[in-house]
Amino acid sequence: KETTMFWGSSFDYAIYEFSNILWANLNNKREQQRLVQVRQQSMAKLNIIKAQYSSYDIYPDTIINGWHNVVATDNMNFCKNAKALMEDNKIIKLVVDNYIPINFKQMGKIKKAKSTITLQNFNGEQLNIVELYFLYDIDEQILTQPPLNPGYICFWSDIKNYNDILLDFNGKRMERFSVTFNKEPSCFENGMICKIVKPGSYSYLARGKGAISWEDTFEVTENECVKIRLGRY
To answer: What is the dihedral of CA 78, 80, 86, 92, to 10 degrees?
Structure first.
């Protein structure tokens, strides 16, 4: 599945989390404190990375085809590891956490084992400029294992009071439904609540108006989209 097929905020959480951008719980002081600490740790790591990078005298301007470990940073909020798929010296895929595809656009050629991209949300809007360091390929270019293919979970509802549903996925509150469906939708249709997930076991608990509720545990495999209906029995 190509990353460009997705749209909307349901998948953008990956970019915001990766970038240490506070996009939810704006009044949550604990979350704000956590992000401040993460940013401080990221900048400390960045200083080490840049010192190591600057210690070399010779850099490759061409990176061989295949998956490579890279260091990604915006020089302000984050410095994290990722995986980049190279083809003809171009970055064609970028994956974080070893399974989450990130939407991006490469801005220029690779020069001195370094490139610049812009992170984009799934509406194609630019979020921030990111530098990628091919630090692990300077001495000798080394391919890494391909990332996992993610799974996908899409919730949908066909009840009248759909906007009263409170959905917790793996203990984390999700966004509210924006529409109700009169028939079962295809995965990723507008109005579904969808997430990119690592293959594994997951659970959810949802509560509607009155006594109605839904709860279950299920498995997700690579490249699988699990559709879950929250409706009357």
So the answer is: -50
Decide if 19 contacts 72 (C-beta within 8 A): no
Tell me, what DSSP letter sits at residue 40?
A: H
Residue 121: per-residue pLDDT: 73
Rounded to the nearest integer, the mean pLDDT of the chain is 87
The residue to which tokens 């690779």 are assigned = 110
What tokens appear for 88 in the block?
A: 């003809």
CA dihedral 16, 17, 23, 29 (to 10 degrees): -150
In the numeric block, the tokens 């028939």 are attached to 183
Q: How far apart are CA 169 and CA 183, in angstroms?
A: 23
Residue 77 has pLDDT above 90, yes or no: no
The residue type found at 204 is Y
The pLDDT, as a whole number, for residue 134 is 98
Give the global pTM: 0.78
| Contact status, residue 23 vs residue 16, Cβ threshold 8 Å | yes
